[in-house]
């Protein structure tokens, strides 16, 4: 990865809807060069997609929480089955599979505390493999939107 690739990634992370012509003009390269570089970034698996970012509060899901979960027994099948279950839950934004005292961290976005309570008590605790669950409400969340090469 060279400086041109890094600049392309930065510009596309700032605004994934930029046209190839706009990117080429910003970078001072020919549009064909720019197009080939973007293709190469995709083929190498560095640039994996483009998506729209949403405002959770505007969608009626303004309360976020992180839920730490332990499952038992900690076998591959139990972990994979639980992961598949939580990935289907519409409230779950991210699933982190961990080492250490917790097996999962679930980042959820819900309407309000009643909805959060229902997710934990009505959805998660119905799973037989659930050994422990701890919920923390998120007061603020900042996600880095531009990732630079190593």
UniProtKB/TrEMBL annotation:
InterPro entries for this protein: ArsR-like_HTH (IPR011991), AsnC-type_HTH_dom (IPR000485), Dimeric_a/b-barrel (IPR011008), Tscrpt_reg_AsnC-like (IPR019888), Tscrpt_reg_AsnC/Lrp_C (IPR019887), WH-like_DNA-bd_sf (IPR036388), WH_DNA-bd_sf (IPR036390)
SMART domains linked: HTH_ASNC
Keyword annotations: DNA-binding, Transcription, Transcription regulation
Gene3D superfamilies: 3.30.70.920, Winged helix-like DNA-binding domain superfamily/Winged helix DNA-binding domain
Residues spanning the membrane: none
Domain (HTH asnC-type) ranges: 1-62
Entry-linked Pfam families: AsnC_trans_reg (PF01037), HTH_AsnC-type (PF13404)
Xref: PANTHER family: LEUCINE-RESPONSIVE REGULATORY PROTEIN (PTHR30154), POSSIBLE TRANSCRIPTIONAL REGULATORY PROTEIN (PROBABLY LRP_ASNC-FAMILY) (PTHR30154:SF54)
Protein's name in the database: Lrp/AsnC family transcriptional regulator
């Amino acid at each position: 990865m060279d400086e041109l690739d890094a600049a392309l990634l930065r510009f596309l992370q700032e605004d994934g809807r930029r046209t190839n012509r706009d990117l080429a003009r910003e970078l001072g390269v020919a549009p064909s060069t720019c197009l080939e570089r973007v293709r190469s970034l995709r083929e190498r698996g560095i640039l994996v997609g483009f998506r729209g970012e949403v405002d959770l509060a505007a969608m009626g899901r303004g309360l976020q929480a992180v839920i730490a979960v332990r499952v038992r027994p900690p076998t591959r099948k139990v972990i994979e089955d639980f992961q598949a279950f939580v990935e289907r839950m519409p409230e779950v934004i991210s699933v982190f599979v961990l080492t250490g005292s917790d097996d999962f961290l679930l980042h959820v976005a819900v309407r309000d505390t009643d909805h959060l309570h229902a997710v934990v008590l009505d959805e998660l605790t119905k799973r037989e493999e659930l050994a422990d669950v701890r919920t923390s409400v998120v007061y603020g969340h900042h996600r880095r939107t531009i990732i630079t090469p190593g």
